[in-house]
Design goal:
The structure holds 2 protein chains of 2 kinds.
Chain A: E1 4-9, H1 13-37, H2 55-81, H3 97-100, H4 102-111, H5 126-152, H6 159-164, H7 167-170, H8 174-185, H9 187-206, H10 210-216, E2 218-222
Antiparallel strand pairs in A: 1-2
Helix pairs in contact in A: 1-2, 2-5, 5-8
Chain B: H1 7-13, H2 18-31, H3 39-48, E1 53-58, H4 64-71, H5 77-84, E2 86-90, H6 98-111, E3 117-121, E4 124-125, E5 134-135, E6 138-139, H7 140-148, E7 153-157, H8 158-162, E8 176-177, H9 179-182, E9 188-191, H10 198-211, H11 224-227, H12 238-243, H13 253-257, H14 324-361
Parallel strand pairs in B: 1-2, 1-3, 3-7, 7-9
Antiparallel strand pairs in B: 4-8, 5-6
Helix pairs in contact in B: 2-3, 3-10, 4-10
Classes of the chains: A mainly alpha, B alpha/beta.
Chain lengths: ~230, ~350
């Protein structure tokens, strides 16, 4: 490894906390959600009232869902009012030709091996920003809205049902909404594979220590390795 | 039978005591989810308001709604109610037929213009001018539009009239469409179910008769009193669901013990109906009570959400053997394969460029 020539503080503590809480929540939500859709059979002996085989998984799903929502709202707040130049929405302007133009094209070309050099970004590159917009922003929003609509079914005309119940007719019924929520949960493993691969690859190719940056907050510029 | 008789008159003529009449009124208020203070309004309406004229049309349907409606065996109070709506036209139950009966429909439409209730059982074929359902020499599509024009309100009986049911399941060869897609300018109450519960049907009519307005409806146009909660939320097997005690197959010991049918594809958790509260045939039982998973017959497009005996629906446009999990696994596999391929290309390019660099230096 070459000598570290520059240290840049990229991911501030709120961003790192958001990242790890989000990661934990999504994994727990995926696992508990899959369990709810296809519970294992562990028939207890005795009366049903003494067991919570299914209720516990649902309870965990709801608890982590609310942590996930709070964390997501906090991240939105941080993006809008945090004044953190590597964590704001400002850099993501898909409607603007200046965004779609050269930087985005260059990054796509780089990923498609159409150019030999790697564009280097301290924060997110344009393709990463798009992926985060689609998977994390749109994906989380959909999962939260559909989840709260289904959570509201427990208590008709309650808070959740009143605010999010419109999702049910929109998707053509409760069953279809459950189905779509279930299908949507598969975004997680797909995203994780892409995310981890991109991080490791960038670490290997750019050597900016992007992997450790989400723990320490620092990215490094490394001197060209003598070969 | 005079059509301007009140319910109380009919009760009296049939020898029902006032005590039984009041019992019926309280029972109806309970079914409607009204507070006890509303019982006097029901009594008053039943005593003083003339019976509501009802025209009952049959389109593309199987008559299971009518079967449910007349099936309420005992107490015979529901039977009395059936006799007491002024059911002026019903091509299934009328003694008259042909021109005689059609004249009667036109007479009611004229005499009670804007006051009668149109009850629709079944839906209309809309393809090829509705030729796939001809009743009384005209297409049901025309009859429905004509009769709906002067109705005070429309009650869509059953899943056919409410959401389409089996007629408009994929691929819907006759273009069958629920009433709400054909009639846009009238208040419509949807009373889905295949068939709906008889007490639910009589309850909806009683509400309209009592208050002169339709009952409060939910987002899908169903009366909240009966369709506000899921079967799951009032299911007597709910304790087994929460405990994780499931029936794994129909010939299992757990089936005999009456455990939860969730893993057998029960649609109770996503179905809004009163089966687990009011039950069927005078409170005798309901599908889950008889050991069969709910098929969700009162939910929109339930035929296309199959199979009935599995939790996770198939995705129709991707063939009959695909569901959300299979799609998910394939997509994850594709993502992993893509990442691996990309990594391989990256490694090859890197090796090449390093070799190139070395050559440059050498």
């Amino acid at each position: 490894m070459g000598r570290i020539i520059e240290e840049i503080y990229v991911w501030r503590l709120p961003v790192r906390l958001y990242h790890w809480i989000n990661a934990l929540c999504m994994v727990v939500l995926f696992v508990t959600g899959m369990y709810i859709s296809a519970p294992l059979l562990s028939p207890p002996l005795g009366e049903a009232v003494w067991y919570k085989g299914m209720a516990w998984w649902r309870y965990m799903h709801f608890v982590f869902a609310f942590v996930f929502i709070a964390n997501f709202l906090f991240r939105l707040y941080w993006a809008l009012f945090g004044g953190d130049k590597y964590a704001r929405f400002g850099g993501f302007r898909p409607w603007s030709p200046s965004w779609w133009g050269k930087p985005f094209r260059e990054q796509v070309e780089s990923y498609l091996f159409l150019r030999s050099d790697e564009p280097n970004y301290i924060g997110h590159n344009p393709v990463a920003a798009l992926a985060h917009f689609l998977f994390i922003f749109c994906g989380s929003t959909f999962m939260i809205f559909s989840g709260l609509a289904m959570y509201g079914e427990n208590n008709p005309s309650g808070f959740s049902e009143t605010l999010f119940g419109w999702m049910i007719p929109l998707f053509g019924g409760s069953y279809t909404l459950h189905f779509t929520h279930h299908l949507g949960s598969w975004m997680l493993p797909i995203y994780v594979i892409m995310h981890l691969y991109a991080v490791v690859r960038h670490d290997v190719v750019d050597r900016t220590s992007v992997t450790s940056s989400i723990i320490t907050g620092y990215k490094h510029k490394v001197e060209e390795e003598p070969v | 039978m005079q059509s301007n008789q009140t319910f109380a008159d009919v009760f009296k003529a049939r020898g029902v005591s006032r005590r039984d009449f009041l019992k019926f009124c309280s029972l109806t208020s309970v079914y409607l989810g009204l507070s006890p203070s509303m019982v006097p309004s029901i009594v008053e309406a039943m005593e003083k308001k003339p019976r509501t004229p009802v025209i009952w049309l049959h389109g593309l349907e199987c008559t299971c709604c009518s079967e449910s409606f007349i099936r309420s065996s005992h107490p015979s109070i529901e039977d009395l109610l059936f006799n007491m709506i002024s059911l002026d036209y019903d091509d299934l139950l009328s003694a008259a037929a042909g021109t005689q009966l059609e004249d009667q429909r036109h007479r009611i439409m004229k005499e009670y213009k804007g006051k009668y209730i149109l009850a629709v059982e079944g839906n209309a074929s809309t393809k090829d001018d509705g030729v796939y359902c001809m009743v009384g020499g005209d297409s049901f599509l025309n009859t429905l539009k004509e009769t709906a024009a002067d109705a005070a309100a429309i009650i869509a009986w059953g899943s056919c009239a409410s959401f389409g049911c089996v007629q408009n399941a994929h691929p819907n060869p006759t273009g069958a469409a629920p009433v709400s897609e054909i009639i846009k300018d009238k208040p419509i109450v949807k009373v889905p179910g295949c068939p709906p519960i008889s007490e639910v049907m009589t309850g909806v009519i009683t509400h309209f008769h009592t208050f002169g307005i339709l009952p409060e409806l939910d987002r899908l146009g169903r009366p909240k009193a009966f369709y506000n909660t899921r079967i799951h939320d009032k299911c007597y097997r709910r304790a087994f669901f929460d405990a994780g005690m499931f029936v794994p197959s129909f010939d299992d010991d757990a089936t005999r013990k009456g455990w939860c049918l969730y893993k057998m594809g029960c649609k109770g958790p996503t179905t809004y109906n009163s089966c687990s509260k009011i039950q069927w045939n005078g409170g005798t039982s309901f599908p889950i009570g008889s050991g069969h998973p709910c098929i969700g017959c009162s939910e929109p497009n339930f035929w296309d959400r199959g199979p009935f005996y599995e939790r996770l629906a198939e995705v129709p446009f991707l063939g009959s053997d695909s569901n959300a999990d299979k799609i998910g696994v394939i997509a994850v596999g594709a993502a992993a394969a893509g990442a691996a391929a990309h990594a391989a290309v990256t490694a090859v390019k890197k090796a090449k460029s390093e070799k190139h660099d070395n050559n440059d230096k050498a």
